[in-house]
């Protein structure tokens, strides 16, 4: 405890926080040894001076009521003085200690990971995982780079316009001018379902995050929701006035976003009800950011429009 100032912890608030971590460990060790009087003195005279967090102080004081050391370790979620608790204290203190005084936790592991990531990014033909060592520089050999045709999937009767793997990797979905979608098994690339129901070309499809449903968009001005397990059409979404050119699932919210040549972007729920609608230029494509906070729309006027989805505000 007395060494805190000599190991690079200078800011007053950092010293206070570090002292609290140390004193909490001392308090718990005294309780574990059933030295209740000493533990109470640490709590009243030292820990209470180091924090204004009344809730935490109340929780610590409640540990005085633990009848056994085993009960204490369970209630405090603490593995005891014979466990890793002191090592965890040291790791907690490191956030307040200058790297010049103490090497950060897992620093070597971090440097190795950074080095391997750097080698992957500089590999011009990277197609496989980097080896878990740095004995030699990583490089994907030329024969590993895909260059040979593996298979040709035949099943559509007209141009294929769109393909997408399911999130779980078990299926491939394709859409076509022949008015159908096909669900293929990625195990042997056999046809699992042929989804029929659209009256005109199917422009694209989107997989639900759990890979159990597909939504498809068509030139017949509708979207259709499909059950991947049965191949059944669950619902038809009507609301666009021209070709629907793009569709995406809004994360795991159960909502679907579509855009079309009718200058509309529509947010739907899974019951086919319109939640939100906005006028836009003709939509060629749309994409949603990984955190579902932004919607990007590509239009026919040389622009990309960025919309805020956090409050469904356009």
Structure description:
The chain is an alpha+beta fold. It has 6 helices and 15 strands. The protein has helices spanning 12-32, 36-50, 54-62, 69-76, 85-93, 107-121, and strands spanning 160-165, 171-176, 180-185, 191-196, 202-207, 213-218, 222-227, 233-238, 244-249, 256-260, 264-268, 274-279, 283-288, 294-299, 304-308. The strands form 4 sheets. The chain has a 4-stranded antiparallel beta sheet, with no helix packed on it. The protein has a 4-stranded antiparallel beta sheet with strand order 5-6-7-8, with no helix packed on it. The chain is elongated. 24% of the residues are buried. The model has no long low-confidence stretch (mean pLDDT 88).
Radius of gyration: 30 Å
What coarse outline follows from CA principal-axis ratios?
elongated
The main pleated sheet reads as: 4 strands, antiparallel
Question: What is the spatial order of strands in the main beta sheet?
Answer: 1-2-3-4
Q: Helicity level, as a percent range? A: 10-25%
Structural class: alpha+beta
Mean pLDDT: 88
- How many DSSP-defined strands? 15
Q: Beta-strand percentage? A: 25-35%
Helical region count? 6
The CA-CA distance between the termini, in Å, is: 55 Å
| Uncertain stretches | none
One letter per element, helices H and strands E, the order comes to HHHHHHEEEEEEEEEEEEEEE
Offer a few descriptive terms.
alpha+beta; four-stranded antiparallel sheet; 28% strand
Layout of helices and strands:
Blueprint: H1 12-32, H2 36-50, H3 54-62, H4 69-76, H5 85-93, H6 107-121, E1 160-165, E2 171-176, E3 180-185, E4 191-196, E5 202-207, E6 213-218, E7 222-227, E8 233-238, E9 244-249, E10 256-260, E11 264-268, E12 274-279, E13 283-288, E14 294-299, E15 304-308
Antiparallel strand pairs: 1-2, 2-3, 3-4, 5-6, 6-7, 7-8, 9-10, 10-11, 11-12, 13-14, 14-15
């Amino acid at each position: 405890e007395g060494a805190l100032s000599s190991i690079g912890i200078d800011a007053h608030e950092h010293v206070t926080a570090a002292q609290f971590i140390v004193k909490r460990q001392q308090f718990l060790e005294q309780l574990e040894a059933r030295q209740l009087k000493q533990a109470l003195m640490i709590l009243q005279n030292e820990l209470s001076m180091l924090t204004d967090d009344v809730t935490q102080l109340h929780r610590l004081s409640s540990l005085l009521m633990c009848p056994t050391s085993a009960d204490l370790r369970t209630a405090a979620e603490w593995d005891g003085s014979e466990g890793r608790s002191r090592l965890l204290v040291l790791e907690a203190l490191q956030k307040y200690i200058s790297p010049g005084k103490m090497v950060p936790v897992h620093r070597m592991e971090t440097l190795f990971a950074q080095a391997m990531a750097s080698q992957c990014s500089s590999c011009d033909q990277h197609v496989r995982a980097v080896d878990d060592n740095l004995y030699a520089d990583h490089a994907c050999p030329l024969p590993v780079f895909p260059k040979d045709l593996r298979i040709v999937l035949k099943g559509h009767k007209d141009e294929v316009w769109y393909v997408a793997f399911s999130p779980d990797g078990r299926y491939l979905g394709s859409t076509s001018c022949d008015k159908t979608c096909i669900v293929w098994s990625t195990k042997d690339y056999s046809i699992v379902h042929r989804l029929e129901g659209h009256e005109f070309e199917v422009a694209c499809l989107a997989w639900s995050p759990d890979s159990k449903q597909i939504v498809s968009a068509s030139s017949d001005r509708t979207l259709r929701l499909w059950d991947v397990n049965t191949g059944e059409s669950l619902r038809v979404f009507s609301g666009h006035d021209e070709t629907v050119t793009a569709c995406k699932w809004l994360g795991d919210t159960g909502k679907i976003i579509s855009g079309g040549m009718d200058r509309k972007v529509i947010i739907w729920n899974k019951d086919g009800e319109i939640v939100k609608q906005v006028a836009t230029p003709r939509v060629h494509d749309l994409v949603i950011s990984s955190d579902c906070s932004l919607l990007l729309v590509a239009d026919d006027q040389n622009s990309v429009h960025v919309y805020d989805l956090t409050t469904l505000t356009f």
